[in-house]
């Protein structure tokens, strides 16, 4: 399987709490599902950063949890309301869009 080396992945996209992925519009991306799986494995395994001794088991668990999460999200019915919080990757994108648009939701246009 062609996956980036663990040192190429960044923990900066990790969050302290796992957020709800069901009901997102657009639907949760593979990156968001993997980030949630990685956070789950970190919490349950007590592994902040994998070491040479823990890396194989850690990455295997992340893949299994991500696969199970994708299956679960695909099988559950639609939510009536969106989740209460955005996943960390979307929070960063929303914050960047706010900075770019000046909070208006649309990029600044040419001045008249």
Describe, in plain words, how this protein is organized in 3D:
By secondary structure, the protein is mainly α. The protein has one domain. Helices cover 46% and strands 0% of the residues. The longest helix has 21 residues. The chain is globular. The N and C termini lie far apart (54 Å). About 5% of the residues have low confidence.
- Total domain units: 1
Q: Work out the helix count.
A: 3
Order of helices and strands: HHH
What percent of residues are in strands?
Answer: under 5%
Kindly, what is the distance between the CA atoms of the first and last residues, rounded to a whole number of angstroms? 54 Å
What's the main sheet like? none
**What percentage of residues falls in helices of 4 or more residues?**
40-55%
Category by helix and strand content: mainly alpha
Low-confidence stretches: 10-15
Q: Average pLDDT, to the nearest integer?
A: 81
Shape: globular
Rg estimate, integer Å: 17 Å
The total strand number stands at 0
Q: What is the compact description of this entry?
A:
By secondary structure, this protein is mainly alpha-helical. It is built from three helices and no strands.
Question: Any key phrases for this structure?
Answer:
0% strand; single chain; 112 residues; mainly alpha
